[in-house]
């Protein structure tokens, strides 16, 4: 039987995970919007402009750097669980809990 403090701790951890996930999705939407704008900017840059090469390099660096940053953010939020579904984790967790319960009885 779980104590109220265990339930409270579990609720706090769950709320924290949801907050991290929400922040990641906001970050992802902002990333998509900005990358689309930068790609459009790369498309419309006139090669006859004096600063065209600078802006092409600058936009490319921003896109690459932000892509790396959002990849690290996704890794941090999902903790590398992009390939392992929640159902798999729950099944394994229950399996280990059942095995541990039988050891102590």
Give structural notes.
The chain has one domain (4-80). Helices cover 83% and strands 0% of the residues. The chain is built from three helices and no strands. The two termini are 15 Å apart.
What are the secondary-structure elements, in order, as H or E?
Answer: HHH
Give me the count of strands: 0
Which of globular, elongated, flat, extended, rod-shaped describes the shape?
elongated
Strand content: under 5%
Radius of gyration, in angstroms, nearest whole number: 23 Å
Give the helix level as a range of percent.
Answer: over 70%
Structural class: mainly alpha
Distance between the termini: 15 Å
How many domains make up the coordinates?
1
Mean pLDDT: 82
Spans of at least 5 consecutive residues with low confidence: none
- Enumerate how many helices there are, as a single number: 3
Largest sheet: none
Question: What would a concise description of this structure say?
Answer:
This protein has 3 helices and no strands. It has 105 residues and is mainly alpha-helical.
Keywords:
mainly alpha, transmembrane helix, single chain, elongated, 2TM domain-containing protein
Summarize the SSE layout with pairings.
Elements: H1 4-44, H2 52-78, H3 86-104
